[in-house]
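User: Structure with 1-deoxynojirimycin, tokens only please.
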Amino acid sequence: MAERKIPWWQKGIIYQIYPRSFKDSNGDGIGDLHGIIEKLEYVKWLGMDAIWISPIYPSPMADFGYDVSDYVGIHPMFGTMEDFERLLGTAHSLDLKVILDFVPNHSSDQHPWFQESKSSRDNPKRDWYVWRDPKPDGGPPNNWLSVFGGIAWEWDGTTEQYYLHSFLKEQPDLNWRNPEVQQAMLDVLRFWLDKGVDGVRIDVIFKIFKDLQLRDNPPRTDGHGHGKNLGEYDSQYHIYDQLQPEAHEVLRAFRRLFDSYGDRVLIGETHLFNWADLVAFYGDRDELHVPFNFALIYLDWDAASFRRVVDEYEAVLPLGAWPNYVLGCHDDHRIATRYGGMAQARTAAMLLLTLRGTPTVYYGEEIGMADVAIPPEQVQDPWGLQVKGIGAGRDPERTPMQWDGSPNAGFTAEGVVPWLPLAPDFATVNVAAEKDDVSSMLTLYRRLIQLRRDMPALHVGQYRPVDGVPADCFVYLRQEGDQRLLVALNFCADERELTLSYLGDGTVMLSTYPDERGHVDLSALVLRPHEGVLIELTAGG
Ligand code: NOJ
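Assistant:
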């Protein structure tokens, strides 16, 4: 079958690396660029096409790198610019693309731009951030809340104004209405594109513009809708502190820049749970290539909900827009923990890697890492400390990668204390132990990835849901040319029988159970508890 030319970011799979936790090469208990370089062969062996690395820039680490104090540097804790260039060169020699995180909504309060901005009301950079007078009663300018807890305004006693921070007070929001800010950020993007990076993932892109009049958000009493539970932050409808139309103009400028470099990708963290809001970020195919779709992350493990969300998404995608799915990331609990166990995580892997659209895999999911309980005195995440209370937050899904069964799991040298504790099960759940084990999660991921790469029906084919199946099952067809695949996922802990006589018969290419199933008759297809199967339908069937 002649294949049409498909951009790498459509055909490929993205692997997210949280750099603090991937591999420590210098014994400080924190991952670094040398560590990533060392493991690129592994990423390649896994079958990935691109790595997205969470922020590696100079930063006081109030939000572990999402508080950037120099947009065009490398934090010495991670290495040097030469190390980064070496990483890029090594990745490219392995035919792996490199995607960086780009954090335009806010900088660190230690960034020289903010230091200047706060130094006086008439400093030339004053207007680079969002400063406002207090209300007549001395209170903050409006009712906006910080995602990380409390009011989104911080008082500056020296210049007697408030500044806006959508996240920590150490993360002041930049003023994107100022053309100099836009210019400076375009220069930052140009800097990295010139170095040869293949794309960026833009942090909270939907927040960069706020209402010009800074109007109060209206109160909300119906919880958090389909998104993540953010506590007090969910007590408002966020209609004035984000999602302003001007963001689209900026994205079009980003896209023009990226297009002028050729084959680069613009990904956005569009943490949005209203389809219209989300798909708007494709623009007229002139904004983001990949507005991240998080819609599956907060669903209960329920076949009907998953099917409904996938079908809705397929239906609302604008013409020519390429879908994508994120099932795990550094802000959300691990898949195995969220869905209640390893059997569910295996079925979720099959789902993620057989849906239509670019999948993103968070490091460690491929070996079945689960959330790690963090003792109160070791909690690091500022959101965990401020909003969720001790013991919660995002640390459990950010623990060190488990490479082998040696002390410290091969993440860092023996005797070093890693920045977050290792999972208690690392002696068995690790790359070395799973590599040659046919029944391991790692083997399942590798086989799924290989099939996705090899089969056009999977990486480019149509998606069609299948009706008339038991309520606990999500079943769909993927088809390209003569290649027809059936994916049947059982979301429950009991056996389920499917009667799909009209589909004829086929061959099981892969089951989430490690045994070989071979030829199957679809008039009576039995799925075992939590089993997922990928079946190639017999031609003409
Ligand atoms: C979204 C990032 O994914 C998250 O980790 C970070 O804390 C916030 N944006 C603020 O930058």
